[in-house]
UniProtKB/TrEMBL annotation:
Recorded superkingdom: Bacteria
Compositionally skewed regions (Low complexity) per UniProt: 81-95
Protein name per the record: Uncharacterized protein
Pfam families in UniProt: DUF6481
InterPro entries reported for this sequence: DUF6481 (IPR045510)
Renumbered residue ranges of the record's region Disordered: 59-142
Source organism (scientific name): Neomesorhizobium albiziae
Compositionally biased intervals (Basic and acidic residues): 59-80, 96-125
């Protein structure tokens, strides 16, 4: 069984110095700015950035087209809804006019019937008044 042993300060300091030395070597080993590998990497990054810009421009264009299409569709829907609303209002007005005309016709029929009944009643009344001085048949007049 392994026993855990704590590192003393000298070992820790040596490890830190070793890490610093490795970082310094890595920095010194970096190629120069005019190195072909560095130039190739820069060209590759530039190409990636240009491709990204093209993709973003295409995305923006598609988004604008989509928004324009949605606005057009929304305008068409609103126009259709407005036309339907106007048609419904006109139908309701026409129906109201028809009901009013039917009601007026019914009222005029009732008034005409009432006038006809009154005329018949007046005729009966006049006939009765005309008979007042006469003796009804079968009652023999003396």
């Amino acid at each position: 069984m392994a026993i855990y042993r704590e590192k003393d300060i000298f070992e820790r300091r040596g490890a830190a110095n070793e890490a610093k030395r490795a970082m310094l070597e890595k920095f010194k080993a970096k190629p120069a700015a005019d190195d072909p590998a560095v130039l190739a990497k820069q060209a590759e990054r530039k190409a990636i950035l240009e491709a990204r810009a093209i993709r973003e421009a295409e995305k923006l264009k598609q988004k604008q087209e989509r928004l324009a299409r949605e606005a057009k569709e929304r305008a068409e829907r609103e126009a259709a809804a407005e036309a339907a609303r106007i048609a419904a209002e006109e139908a309701a007005q026409a129906e109201a006019k028809q009901r009013e005309a039917e009601e007026n016709e019914r009222i005029s029929r009732l008034l005409a019937d009432e006038a006809e009944r009154k005329a018949k009643r007046d005729a009966r009344y006049a006939a009765r008044k005309a008979r007042v001085g006469r003796v009804p048949p079968g009652f023999g007049g003396k």
